[in-house]
Amino acid sequence: MSKGPWLDDDEQKAWRSYLLMHRTLETHLERHLQREFGLSKSDFEILVNLSESETGRMRAFELGKATQWEKSRMSHHLSRMEKRGLIRKEACDARYPEIVITDEGLAAIKACAPAHAARVRKFFVDVFGPDRMAVLGEVSDEIVETIEKHRHADCPPEVSG
Predict the structure, then answer these.
(1) What value does the CA radius of gyration of the chain take, rounded to a whole number of Å?
(2) Which residues pair with 57 in a beta bridge?
(3) Cα–Cα distance, 17 to 123 (Å, whole number)
(4) Domains in the chain, please, with CATH?
(5) How far apart are CA 129 and CA 118, in angstroms?
(6) Whole-number Cα distances in Å, 130 to 17, 119, 123, 143, 152
(7) Distance from first CA to last CA of the chain, Å, rounded?
(8) Number of Cβ within a 10 Å radius of residue 21
(9) In this structure, which of 16, 20, 33, 119 has its CB flanked by the most CB atoms within 10 Å?
(10) Cβ atoms < 10 Å from Cβ of 160
(11) Would the CA dihedral through 40, 44, 46, 51 be positive or negative?
(12) What is the model's pTM?
């Protein structure tokens, strides 16, 4: 399927359109989170993961795996969230503490999630429609699978994580 390393004009146009759409959507959604609820996209991502876990707690490495963040970024961000009262760190049997969503963190995610979901629906889901949304889901899964195969086969260790 590959024609070589360079993208032709149509491929380049589609790729750049995708990049612009992604940046525009992500920036717009984050601005709403920040201005209306005082949460960054990163705060939201952590709170979503914690709120969706059965116990409201996860280990930092689990959060890192779910978010694909590097260890130092995770550590710094969790410290900032802890200072704001959104999460707390609790000692456990393991070497590192568990990250626990606080009542304040749960209230924050419950407050912003409906508005955020409505915007995702308006600016993304409804624009695609059900048929194209199904195709997008399939293609997205295929892209992730292709990257995972590359990471485990011939990707340099310093890149694959």
Answers:
(1) 19
(2) 100
(3) 15
(4) 36-160 (1.10.10.10)
(5) 15
(6) 21, 17, 14, 20, 33
(7) 27
(8) 13
(9) 33
(10) 13
(11) positive
(12) 0.87
**pLDDT per residue as tens digits for the range 42-97:** 999 999 999 999 999 999 989 999 999 999 999 999 999 999 999 999 988 777 78
Residue 58 and residue 50 in contact, taking contact as beta carbons nearer than 8 Å: yes
**DSSP 8-state class, residue 100:** E
- CA–CA gap between residue 98 and residue 103 (Å, rounded): 16
> Taking a C-beta distance cutoff of 8 angstroms, is the pair 105, 85 a contact?
yes
Amino acid letter for position 138:
E
Distances 78 to 3, 39, 63, 88 between C-alpha atoms, Å: 44, 13, 10, 8
Query: Do you know the residue count of the chain?
Result: 161
Task: Rounding to the nearest 10 degrees, give the CA dihedral for residues 85, 49, 75, 107.
Answer: -10
